[in-house]
Design a protein that fits this description.
single chain, alpha/beta, Arc Repressor Mutant, subunit A, Purple Acid Phosphatase, chain A, domain 2, 31% helix
């Protein structure tokens, strides 16, 4: 039996006999293996968690939560996985479940979902900030509003804004819902990323701060288009998935991308989220996307904004009961002092443009991509 691989059935017998408090010799005799062999095998199983009680995905997640980062070959050893395909399939399965896992230079990296991301920048006088709040651009969608988006960015820049915060769903993705292929004119991640790098307006000294939303992560496992976009566009700063604190000139904004459908009371999702933020971690401004609405609501001393969208109503939205979408965003002139925070809000809301994406015409016929 020396050098012979262990089977799952043998692992099961080993774990069962050990739970029955059998001696290493008795277990070895039962399996036809040496005492040293069964002792080492049990130690390996203990490292990866009992395989009979947890799935491969659960075991991998347990290890990543414990160590944070690990070389992929070492992870394979701990999981007792021989085939690379099985290990990658396991990791991609966890990615599809929205666990923040990435693979870089042979290492598997994991970031806990409850870890606070707080990015601090200085861009002008402390306590003063001009900023634009926006989200849900959905580039690649046939309902995108790229013309309105360019108008908004130009207006913000003309008003002195040098930081545009985008709370997710910059891209429409390709695998977010069934039959999405009928809703988009760009059908791969590369096409949508390259398109975004080309059409997102560029201005001197202006920076886009972006988080990824559910559509951004809807290209399949392991693809993060915002991270890729930032590599092509130096004016784009990627802050993470679904949420991040960003502090500019001592003014803290929490960028958030919501989940689920819009509720009847439009402020409900915002209120529920802000009520859960721990005391002492409240931002000055809360900027939430996903629901394609545009309004302001103060909650728990936080100035909360739903940031609108730059996507018209889609056939998918109509199928799930949505009847409208707000095309627009916020421009804020903020001043923070010891006495509190003052801001001058300006919002722009526009009528959606039909077919605001590339198409060809030939005579009286129009061909939409």
């Amino acid at each position: 039996m020396a050098g012979q691989k262990w089977t799952k059935y043998e692992d099961y017998i080993l774990s069962t006999l050990k739970q029955d408090k059998r001696s290493w010799k008795a277990i070895g005799d039962a399996l036809g293996r040496s005492e040293e062999s069964v002792r080492k095998r049990y130690s390996r199983l203990s490292e990866v968690v009992n395989p009979q009680t947890k799935s491969l995905e659960e075991r991998a997640l347990d290890i990543l939560k414990q160590v944070g980062s690990i070389h992929i070959s070492e992870l394979a050893k701990k999981l007792n996985v021989d085939k690379d395909t099985e290990l990658f399939a396991t990791l991609y399965s966890l990615m599809r479940e929205s666990y923040d896992i990435s693979i870089d230079s042979g290492f598997v990296l994991y970031e806990a979902p409850d870890k606070l991301k707080n990015f601090v920048f200085s861009d002008g006088k402390e306590g003063k900030l001009k900023v634009a709040l926006t989200g849900d651009w959905h580039l690649g969608s046939k309902a995108q509003q790229i013309t309105r988006l360019k108008e908004f960015c130009q207006l913000a820049y003309d008003k002195g804004v040098r930081a545009i915060l985008v709370s997710g769903d910059i891209f429409d993705g390709t695998r977010v819902f069934r039959d999405q292929a009928d809703e988009i004119f760009l059908h791969t991640a590369d096409e949508q990323i390259e398109y975004g790098a080309e059409v997102i307006p560029k201005y001197p000294d202006l920076t886009y701060y972006m988080i990824a939303g559910n559509h951004c992560l809807g290209f399949g496992a392991g693809i993060n288009p915002i991270s890729s976009l930032a590599k092509q566009r130096p004016d784009v700063t990627y802050l993470g998935k679904y949420g991040a604190y960003i502090t500019i000139n001592n003014i803290t904004i929490y960028m958030h991308h919501g989940l689920g459908a819009r509720t009847y009371a439009l402020s409900y999702k915002m209120q529920k989220f802000l009520e859960k933020i721990k005391s002492g971690q409240e931002p000055d401004i809360f900027a939430q996307a996903h629901y394609h609405t545009l309004f302001y609501a103060p909650v728990r001393g936080v100035d909360g904004f739903e940031v609108g969208s730059f996507q018209g109503i889609t056939s998918f939205a109509r199928r799930i009961g949505e009847t409208d979408t707000t095309v627009g965003g916020w421009i804020l002139n903020i001043e923070k002092t010891e006495d509190g925070i003052d801001f001058e809000p300006f919002f722009t809301r526009k009528k959606p443009i039909e077919h605001d994406y590339p198409y060809m015409s030939e005579g009286s016929k129009v061909y939409y991509f």
